[in-house]
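[Q] Does anyone have a clean structure-token version of this?
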Amino acid sequence: SSRLEWGGTQVQNTSRYYIALAGKNLVKIMPPDARNPDADRRIGVDVGWNVQMCNNANDFDWTNLNRRFYVDEAKKLVTGLGLSVTCN
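[A] Here you go.
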């Protein structure tokens, strides 16, 4: 009963995406709940980052990949292990 919207356009519920330099926001829209029965619940996916849909691997664009996002996420994982990280 939930749906997924990319930049305001509905996309398939099971979608592949990557964090991109140029993209749109991704939002999961769920039906109302008991606390607010008159409004859909909207939950942002990777809020603050542009998202590019990529359900077909041929649509992937290396030039649009936001490498900084993935480097920062990798640093978080390594830091959690108690290791120091140096990366440009």
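[Q] Thanks! Anything notable?
[A] Helices lie at 67-79.
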